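User: Hand in any protein.

Assistant:
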Amino acid sequence: MQTVSEPTLDTNVATGIDSRSARPSIPLLLAALLLVMFLAALDQTIVSTALPTIVGELGGLHLLSWVVTAYLLASTVVVPLYGKFGDLYGRKLVLQTAIVLFLLGSALCGLAQNMTQLILLRALQGLGGGGLMVVAMAAIGDVIPPAERGRFQGLFGGLFGLATVVGPLVGGFLVEQLSWRWIFYINLPLGIVALLVIGNAFRPHVARVKHVIDYFGAFFLTLALASLVLITSLGGSTLEWTSIDILVLALFAVVGVVGFVHEQRIAAEPIMPLHLFRHRTFVLAGLIGFTVGVSLFGSVTFLPLYLQVVKDATPTSAGLQMLPLMGSMLLVSAITGRLISRWGRYRVFPILGTLLQVIALALLSRLDLQSSMLQMNLYMALLGAGLGMVMQVLILAVQNGVEFRHMGVATSGATLFRSIGGSIGVSAFGALFTHELMSRLVSSFPANAGSPANLSPADVHALPMALQQTYLAAFSGSMHWVFLVACLVSAVAFALSWLLQEVPLRAA
C-alpha cells in the first residue's frame, strides 16, 4: 500500500524546532472538534420549530418537509466518501473543507428569498455537515492514544444527544427573539472559531493512505436515494402515481439500485461491501434502523408544527414542549447502555423499544383539538423512551456481530440506513400531510381567505373563529395520518426485532 507520511515531531527536532512548542493543545483542539460535532448535530433538528414561520414568510407548505430532507439526504450520501477523503488527503484539510462548505451553506440559507432557494442551499449545507461528524470522530484517533480514546468518544456521543435535545429549543428561541434566518447565521461565528482553532492546533501525525474512491458507487447511491425521496414526496400529492414523471423517477431509482449493486461487486473499495448483506444481524439492524429514522425525524419535524398551529405555542414554547421526547430519549439511552454493560444482553431492548414506539405513535395519532398538553408530553416521553432503547443498541449489535476488520464499514452502513429512513420518512410524511390538509380544506376554505398553504401560525389564529376552527380541525386530522403511518412502520420494526439473535458481547 502506498503511503505518504506527514511531518512528525522527530522531523521538527531535526530541523531545530522545539518539539514541545510544536505540540498541539489537545484540550483546545478537542473543544473545537466538539463544537464542530455540535453544529452538525444541531442543524438536523434546529430547523423543526422554525418551519411554520418559514412557510408563513416564504410560502410553499407542500415543500416544507424538503427543508429538513435536503440536509439529511445530502449529508447521508457524502458520509461514506468523507472517511476515505480524510485518509487520502489528510483529515485536517478535509475537515476544514467540510466546515467551509457548511458555513457557506449556512450563510446563504439565511439569505434565501424563496422556498426553492432555501431547499437547494440546505443541500449545500448538508454536503458540508455530512463531513463534520465523521471526520471529527476520525480526528480523535489522530491525536488521542487508544487507551484514552473510549472516554472521549463517549463524550462526543453525549454531545450529539445534547444537540438533538436542545436543537428545537434553540431554534424556537432564535425565531421568536430575532428571526428564523438566525438559526443559520448562528453557525457562522461558532464555525469560524472552530475553523481557526483546528487550523492552528490540529497536527495529525499519521500516514496518509492511498484509497481508491468509489465515485461511481456514490453516484448510483445518490441517484437511487434522490429518486426515492422525490417519489415519496411528490407521488399522490403534486403528481399522480401513474404520471410519466413518477414513472421516470421510478426508472431512475431502479437504475440507481442496480448500478449501485453492480458497482459494489466490482469496486476495489466499495462504499458498502455486499458480503455484509449476508450477515443476519447487519440486515436486521439496518431495516430496524431505517424505521427508527422514520420515527425520529418524522416526529421531530411535525410535532413542533402541530404545537405551534393547533396549540398556539410560540416557537420557544414549542421547543420546550419537545424536551419530554428528546430528554427521555437521551436518559433512556444512557440507562440502556449501563444495563447492557451489567447484564451482557441487548436483544430485549430493541423489542421493548419498538413496542413503545408503536404504542406512543398510536396514541399521538389520536390527538385532537381538546387533547391536553399533559397528554401530549406523556406520549412524546413514551416515544423518546422507545427510541432511546433502540438507536445505540442497534449499532452495538452490528459492531458485536461482525468481524473486527469490518467494524468500521458495518457501523457506517447501519448509520446510513437510519439516515435514509429519516430522509424518505420526512419527505413521505410531508407529502401525506400536505395532501390530506389540502383535500380537507378545498371544500370548506373560502377562496378570499388566502391560500391555506401559506398561512403562518399567527395568520391561522387571526382568522375568524369559525374559519379558524375549520382549519385547525383539518390540520389536526391530517396529522393523525402522519402518526398512524409511522405507527405501522414501527410495527414492522417490532416484528423484525424478534428475529435479532443474542450474540455474547465481545470482551475486546
Q: What stands out?
A: The chain has three domains: 1-213, 214-268, 273-508. The longest helix spans residues 407-441. Confidence is low (pLDDT under 50) at residues 1-24. The two ends are 27 Å apart (CA to CA).
